[in-house]
Amino acid sequence: MRHTVDTERFTITAEDGRPVSWFDEEGFSLLSRWWLLASWQRKYSYQFRWLGRPVIQLPADLIMIQDLIHRIRPTVIVETGIAHGGSVVFHASVLVAVHHGGAMPADRPRVIAVDIEIRPHNREALESHPMSAHFTLVEGDSTNESVVDEVRMLLRDDDVVLVILDSGHSRAHVAGELRAYGPLVSPGSAIVAMDGIMPALARLPDGQEEWLEDSPTAAIEEFLSSEAGQAFAIDESYRDYAVTHSPGGVLLRRET
Ligand SMILES: C[S@@+](CC[C@H](N)C(=O)[O-])C[C@H]1O[C@@H](n2cnc3c(N)ncnc32)[C@H](O)[C@@H]1O
């Protein structure tokens, strides 16, 4: 597919060859898409830190998650995929800011973060981080039953639970996580499956053809058409952010 950009008329051609303005919804979304592909190939999202820890996210996605935390005001965030821990520290710091001054038990708000491998230098840096009182690290495969049980045991009946999935990104793994962690999400809260952009990256030099079918997006579709998924619906409120790795990734749990 070819899109021609005209820098004098400020247009880009759509799939069917029509020139569309950079400044309307369709044109802006096409331009954002090409920027996203170039930035992924260049590993743009690998350069950022949050309070000293590397965080592998687009800044716009961090703003989106911050807004979701502010809207939902969870007492606990369950996160899969720690890497260097920047997102753990990010979620903990936003939680603390959102609940500042509120009457909370000492062990709340808290992030429960799971990774199949927490490297010793990352664990050490996280355990000595100023936010460390606000997170618990769990090591193991996020879809392993004993790991899910361990997470469940750390929750209290009155917790408001938000779940963010950013570990393995295959369809099977994310579908397994949605099945395992979906029931932990509180009514009115959400489960976020990150990196649904993968099919759009499949044909880049570092992409993989399988991602056209094998991605978090495919897992979301599978989950939403299952019985457990009927309690959830895609939250459309971040569609205009345009520059995101997780389009359609926020699944809101209905109130009842
Ligand atoms: C994309 S990185 C996480 C990035 C992190 N959330 C951030 O924003 O900086 C993915 C992480 O998932 C972990 N991972 C991969 N497969 C996993 C699995 N089956 N269970 C748990 N963690 C897994 C990897 O070890 C890696 O640290």
Explain the overall architecture.
The chain is built from eight helices and twelve strands. With 256 residues, it is an alpha/beta fold. The protein folds into two domains: 5-41, no CATH class; 48-253, Rossmann fold. The protein has a seven-stranded mixed sheet with strand order 8-7-6-9-10-12-11, sandwiched between helices. It has a three-stranded antiparallel sheet with strand order 1-2-3, with helices on one face. A two-stranded antiparallel sheet has the order 4-5. α2 (59-72) runs parallel beside α3 and α6 (171-181) packs across α8. The longest helix is centred in the N-terminal third of the chain and has 17 residues, at 25-41. The protein is globular, with a radius of gyration of 19 Å. It binds S-adenosylmethionine (SAM). S-adenosylmethionine binds next to α3 and β7.
Compose a concise summary of this entry.
This protein is an alpha/beta fold and 256 residues long.
Instruction: Kindly identify the CATH topology of the largest domain.
Output: Rossmann fold
User: Which CATH top level class of the largest domain fits?
Assistant: Alpha Beta
Number of domains: 2
The largest sheet, given as strand count, sense and whether it forms a barrel, is: 7 strands, mixed
Tell me what portion of residues adopts beta-strand conformation. Answer: 15-25%
Provide the CATH architecture of the largest domain: 3-Layer(aba) Sandwich
- Cross-sheet strand order for the largest sheet: 8-7-6-9-10-12-11
How many helix segments?
Answer: 8
CATH superfamily of the largest domain: Vaccinia Virus protein VP39
